[in-house]
Every structure is written in C-alpha cells, then in structure tokens.
Amino acid sequence: MSIGVGVIGTGVMGAEHARILRHETPGAHLAGIFDPDPTRAQAVAVGAAVFSDARSLIASDQIDAVLIASPDVTHAALTLACIEAGKPVLCEKPLASSAAGALDVVRAEVALGRRLIQVGYMRRFDPGYREIKRVKDAGEIGGPVLLHNVHRNVRAPEWFDGSMAITNSFVHEIDISRWLLGSEMVSVHVEAGPGGEPLMITMKTDKNEIVSTEVFVNASYGYHVHAELVGRQGTISLAPASLTLLNRDRAGGLSYPDNWVPRFEEAYRRQMADWVSAVKFGGAVGASAWDGYVASAIAEQVAQALAGNGVATLRYEPRPSLYD
Fold it and tell me: CA geometry: angle at 105 spanning 104 and 108, to 5°?
C-alpha cells in the first residue's frame, strides 16, 4: 500500500518535501497540495490534487498523512486539526508559535492516547549526527563533558529579528543537544556580540554537561553547522559536509551552501522514509510533540534571558507518560 501524503505549504521546505515524496520515497506518493497561492500550488503539485483550503486536504479520503510546511503561526491549528481527524502528521518546526500553543498540541495528543505527531527536527536523521550519537551511546569516548555547537547562516531575511535567532534557529541546537546527550537542559547563560550578534549560549544539563552554541545568522560566507562532543576519553565531531575540495587561483578549500537544504538533503530523505514507514506500521520516530514543546519552551526562556540579565533557570511542564 502506498501512503497518500498531503503537503500544506509550498515554500522552500514544502516544495522540497513534495519533490522527495515524488521521486525519493518508496511506499508513499504526493496525493495533495494546498497553498494560498494557487499558481505556486499547481506548479508543485505536478498531477497531485490541489485543494482549496488546508482543512479540506486534511479531511480528504485521498490523504492518509499530512506534512505541514506552512508559516509558523499556522502550525498549531493545523496539527490540532490532524489530531481531530486521526491522521499522522509531520510538522515542520516549530510545533507552534509559542510554548503555550505547543503545550496545547501536546495535551490534545495525550487526550487522544496515541502519538500522531512528528516534529521536523531533521538533524536527528543526519548521518553525521547519528554517528556522534552511536559513538556516545557505545561509550567510545567516555562520559560526555562538553558539546560545542556552531550555527551560522549567510544572512538573515529582513523580517528576522534578534529573538528569532533563538526561536527559529537555535531551536535546532536545543533539540539535537537533548537527543545526542539524552539529557535535559536546566540553566542557561546568553550573551550577544556587538550589534546583537553572534550569540553565545551556554546551557548546563541535569547531568552537569555543558552545551555551548554560537548562533551567527549573518556570517556572510555560507551556511555552516558544526558539532563536537567532548568525552572523558576522546572527542567526536562532524566532518566537513562539503563533497569536494576546490583548488583554483592559488587557493583551495571547502565550499558552503547558501542555505540549509543542500547541507541536510540526506537528512530530509531519511526523515521522510522513516516517517512514512512509521505511518504504515503504526510506530513513532523522530522528535515528538513533547520534544517540540520543550524546544519552544527553552527557546522562549533563552530569549527572555537575552532581553534581561542573560541568565535563567529553565522550567517546563512534567513530561506525560505517553512520551516515555
């Protein structure tokens, strides 16, 4: 049986997800598209049904599962509609535009009594990050002590303000750090460089590990993500993601993409394949709704600390047993 997936939103990520479904995901097919721009929807649909609104797509018998890639402010309402319809959903991060909204989604899923939601923190599917986790879990570098993260973009769009560097970019480091370490973050110290960036965010975990993250959304030279885990007996880090080394004009080196899509192309493919398999066989993979809530809750508190004295003790609701 091929899973019919409906995609809501056809911007950069929606169009890429639709492409992966059409060409690189055995066991699933692009069954429907909705975007407020009908011309863009038709261009991405390539023969799939085009719906007049998001809720009719969710309700359609043609749609077995839903992928939400619409603007952030729509995520919570659309995810709640999927829960109401009993349909599995892969929702791009963030799960909601606020931690309170994400918690509402968590409570709705808990009331349903089964997991339908996966949040699109795709780094969990990246081969490099997965190898760091494998080595850490196998004890090959001893107990973890420090996790160093770097998150650099070429430039931020005009609508991207200081807090969004935390709530829209740093959330990836929140999620991947929790996943790699198997720890919860308990405190934070954040400082901004001259002019507001880069940000240096240092968190401590409930196991006394230290997580440091540089967030630089106007780094100019390219999209660059890096991580190094320091253990008591060794270290492991991501290798350069560039496929080639270019030598020209008496210089040589790595190349960096303009944005995150080429860097995490394989992660997006694996995420889609694993999600489709979970939909087909009734399992759950990737970041849960609870993980989505925790990432948003931490990000909000870090943003508040940045606007205040730079420090905070992190707090969030108790984890429901559904996510044990």
Answer: 90
User: What pLDDT was estimated at residue 162?
Assistant: 66
pLDDT of residue 5: 98
Nearest to 38 by CA among 56, 26, 50: 50
Closest C-alpha among 12, 121, 22 to residue 4: 22
Which among 306, 313, 94, 304 has a CA at the least distance from the CA of 203? 313
Largest Cα separation within the chain, whole Å, is 63
Hey, is 308 helix, strand or coil?
Answer: coil
By DSSP bridging, strand 224-231 and strand 210-216 are unpaired
Token pair of 134, please? Answer: 């494998």
Q: What is the C-alpha separation between 102 and 96, in angstroms, rounded?
A: 5
Report the interhelical angle of 75-85 vs 99-112 (nearest 10°): 0
CA atoms within 13 A on the CB side of 146: 11
Task: Tell me the pLDDT of the chain averaged across its residues.
Answer: 96
Q: Please enumerate in sequence order all residues whose Cβ is within 8 A of that of 225, keeping only pairs 6 or more positions apart, or say none.
A: 149, 150, 151, 152, 238, 241, 260, 263
Q: How far apart are the first and last CA of the chain?
A: 30
- 94-117 as b/e: b if 16+ CB within 10 A: bbbbbbebbbbbbebbbeeeebbb
Q: Which tens digits make up the pLDDT trace of 248-292?
A: 999 999 999 999 999 999 999 999 999 999 999 999 999 999 999
Please state the pTM of the whole predicted model: 0.96
Nearest to 152 by CA among 173, 125, 131, 132: 173
Is residue 16 within 8 A of residue 122, CB to CB? The reply is no
Q: Which stretches of the chain score pLDDT less than 50?
A: none
